[in-house]
Amino acid sequence: MAINVYTPGCHLLCHDDVIGSRRVSYILYLTDPDQPWKSEWGGALRLYPTVVQKDKDGKEIKVPGPDSTLSIPPAFNQLSFFAVQPGESYHDVEEVFAQSPGSQLDGDEAR
């Protein structure tokens, strides 16, 4: 199990979570229950389709497509999970954005 805290500027690059015998990945969001998450803050889990390409030896391989097909923004106490399938379950975490310079949103800096 891993625990991550995403602060402004944090993100996770596209990958497929194939680690050992892992079959399911999940994210439990523990955002501030008194301040609903805004999509413009980023931090969404994004799922990607695969496309087939040929490697340098002509072998067909699956790689993530260029655009996500599903974006799941954080929400308090939300559990998102998905099957881990080698070369199939590509996903990333969108960058968490800092508040605009000069903005005065109470409590926004710690998201």
Structural key phrases:
single chain; 111 residues; mainly beta; four-stranded antiparallel β-sheet; two-stranded antiparallel sheet; 8 strands; elongated
Most strands sheet = 4 strands, antiparallel
Estimate the global geometry from the Cα principal axes: elongated
**Counting H and I runs of at least 4 residues, what is the number of helices?**
0
How many E-type strands? 8
- Uncertain spans: none
Strand order of the largest sheet: 1-8-3-6
Q: What's the end-to-end separation, in Å?
A: 22 Å
Counting copies of identical and different chains, the oligomeric state is single chain
Supply Rg.
16 Å
Helix content: under 10%
Portion in beta strands: 25-35%
Let me know the average pLDDT.
87
Order of helices and strands: EEEEEEEE
Category by helix and strand content = mainly beta
